[in-house]
Amino acid sequence: MKINLPKAFPLLSLCLIALTGSTMPGANDGLAVYNKVSKALNSLKTIQYTYRREFNYPSEGYLSKIEGQMYLDFITDAQLVGFRYQYSHNGEFTTFNGSEIFSNNLEDKTLRIKRNLTPASFEGNSWIYHSMVTLRNALPMVMADNSIVKTVTDTLVSGKRYYNLKFVLPNKLLTYLGTGYSPVTIQRTFVYKILVDPATNLPVTVLQTNTINNDLNRTDFVNATTKTQPPAETSWYSSNYLKDYALATEGKHELIKANIPAPDWQLTSAENNAAVNLSQYRGKLVLLEFWIKNCSYCIGAVHKLNAMQQQYPNNKFKILAINMEDYKEMIAVFKTSISRNTNSCTETIKWIKLTVSSHFQQLYW
Questions:
Q1: How far, in Å, CA of 357 to CA of 131, rounded?
Q2: Strands 285-290 and 317-322
C-alpha cells in the first residue's frame, strides 16, 4: 500500500465526534477509528517513507526543518525496542540493528558506533520524534487512558477525505518512542492532531500545538509505502563498513589547570559585531556562562547573573554569556523575550559569538 501526503494541512472540519458512540459518515464511532489506526500501525512489518519534521516557534523566533529517508523493520527480533531502522539525511547514513547505532559520514568517510543502548538512548534522535514508531506505541496508551480527551474529525484536504485524530495532554508530551510521557516545566496543554488516510488507516501528518501560543511541531510521512525493497542484510552491521570507513575518534580535551593563564581568543559581539578579546579583561575576574536559549536553567539564571554583575564593580568582574548553538538573531529574540517575561535586564551581561580559525566551523556564542 502507498500513502500520499497532502501538500498542506488546511483542515476543513466536516463533523466532530467525541468518543461517545456517535458516528461520522463512512466511519464507526471515534474509538473504533483510533482502534483501526492503532491496528494498522501495529500490523506493520516494514515501511519506508520520506520523513519531514518542522519545529516552528514564533514565540522564540526559531524555525528548524529536517528531511530524510526512513526504512523501518518491525519483523526482527529486536528485543530492546521492537524495531530496527536505516535513516539517511544530509550526508549521513544512520543504522540501528537491534544492538548498536552507527552513523556513516558520507563526506569524511568516518564511522561512529554507539553500543550498550537502553530505550533512553533513542530520546533526542530527531528521526524518531513523532514517527511511525511513536504513534505505534502511543495510541494504545492514549486509548486506554479515559482521562485523555479524544476526538475524531472527518476532514477534507485538497478534496480528499481524511480522519483527523485529536487528543489533548495537559502538562506533558509523548516521549520519542511513544512508550510514556515527558513532563514539562512550564504548565500548558498540548494538542496532538494526526491526519490519517482512511484507505490505509495509516498517518500522513502529525501536528502538535499548545494552548498558550502559536508554536507548533509538524511531522509528515511522504510517499510512505509498505511494499518495500529490503536493504541488503550486510548493510545492517557496522563491520561491513570498516574497509571503507575509519572509526571516528573524539578529540582529547584537557581542563586548564588552576593558576595557569587562560589562552586568548578572538570573539565578535552578538550585539554590535565589535571584536572582543579575553586579554582585554586582563586583571578582572571573568565568568564564562555557557547557555542555549531552549534551556529552563539558562532562563532562570539570567536574573541571578545580572544581580551578580551589578553586585561587583564593572572594572573588577565581567560575565560573558557564551552560546555555541543559536544564531545571533535567535540570541536577540531570547534577550527580548527574557526581559519581557522575567522583568530582568539583560544588558549587564555581554552576549558574544565566537569566530575561530578556519579549521573549525563557525560557532555562535
A1: 39
A2: parallel
pLDDT tens over the chain, length 365 residues: 444 444 444 433 333 333 333 334 443 477 899 999 999 999 999 999 999 999 998 887 788 899 999 999 997 666 789 999 999 998 999 999 999 999 999 999 999 999 999 999 999 899 999 999 999 999 999 999 999 999 998 999 889 999 999 999 999 999 999 999 999 888 899 999 999 999 999 999 999 999 999 999 999 999 999 999 999 999 999 999 999 999 988 767 778 888 888 888 887 777 778 888 888 888 888 888 888 877 767 777 888 888 888 888 777 888 888 877 777 777 777 777 766 655 544 445 555 544 332 222 233 32
CB 46 within 8 A of CB 73: yes
Cell numbers found for residue 84: 530496527
Count CB-CB contacts under 10 A for residue 87: 21
Distance CA 54, CA 185 (A): 22
For residue 89, the Cα-to-chain-centroid distance in whole angstroms is 15
Dihedral angle of Cα 11, 31, 37, 74, to the nearest 10 degrees: 140
Q: In angstroms, rounded to a whole number, what is the distance separating the alpha carbons of residues 300 and 104?
A: 38
How far apart CA 286 and CA 295 sit, in angstroms, is 22
Q: What is the pTM for the complete model shown?
A: 0.72
